[in-house]
Request: fold
Amino acid sequence: KECVRTTTSSGINAEYGSLPIENARAYIGANYTLIIVGTLPEDSGNYQCVAENTLTNETRISLEGELYVTQRADNDVDDDSEKPSPSIASYYTTVPEGDSTSLLCAFQGVPYPTYTWFFSNGTEIAELEYTAFSYQYERQVLQIESASRDMAGVFHCQGTNIAGASVINVTLFVDYQEELGFYEELPDVMNFDQEAGGIAEVVCPAKGTPPLQISWYGGDNTQILSNSATLTVDLEHHGNQSATCRVSNINGTVEQSVVIRVTEREDQVHPNPTGDSLEATVQCHGDSMTLVISERPSNYALFHLLNRSCEFEGDTQNIEAPLEACGTKVYYNETHIIYKNQVTGISSAAGESGDDDSPISRDDNLRITFECAYKRTGWRLRVEQEWSLRDSFVYL
Reply:
């Protein structure tokens, strides 16, 4: 004879399993007890407990009684006054992130208790201050419009009257999508120019929830930085170093590695006792860059790029360097990708020796470093401008 539905002449209609949300003011709780949220004088009336047989579909009234609700003044205190006592026990509830939910609080007491809700740190939840929260039924119900993961925790509901106060704790769990990974891939190699006193930053592109633990490890798997996504690179000394960004949370561990290369600084102006000069400009294209030699001495038998297999005859005026070949180096910053190469001119005198492995003297050879900058747009490149040499004239 389980009471599955309650009806009354006053208009209250509750079913087993329902909660007092929206316009509902009553529900059937543990042991099939009818709980009315915020009883009012108009709730007085005849109540019936209706039992249903799910096998025969028969229904009958298993319990019937009268309820009388009287109004008392807040200061009407006598020997009948009672400290608020919880009508329901402390409980927990779970809601998906982004959904709305209602937290219920109910006390019995004489005179009728007032209700106050607090965060777990003791701060009162003021309806006007916290727009995500609102109240119903004289603050017996705390309404949350859109639950977020940072709202998870314990909410305290306090019932107070002149005889004392009591508290019901409601624990809210918020379900959300857990993830662990990276929002982009680190390049295999990151190149930087050597610079006295200079530093650069390499950022680990990690993402995930719950909160992440991010650490950096060196090539020998020794931890070099903890609790930071940003690794600072010293540009004072040239060389290569391997670095691994390792990211962990309760879902596991993932990592990415990168080789950080600091290139030794190269002079772009090389004096030569002859006083001869060479004039050149740089043209930047979608997949290459071209050093255009407009006026030069004729005493060079050969030119080559950083990769010596990319050679040009001495009378060549347009020296083309592909962005992905011939030793072209790539450098990154926050807004641009910079490609750089170097042309070396072998003088006719040096070329006559016929020994390709012979040392190259700075007095006999010309070196010109040139570069192009491309603005980063997502993962695509576009030519932003043509960059000329730092000096229009490069002295031999």
Q: What stands out?
A: Confidence is low (pLDDT under 50) at residues 16-23, 267-275, 351-364, 378-396. The first strand starts at residue 3 and ends at 8. DSSP finds one helix and 34 strands in the chain.
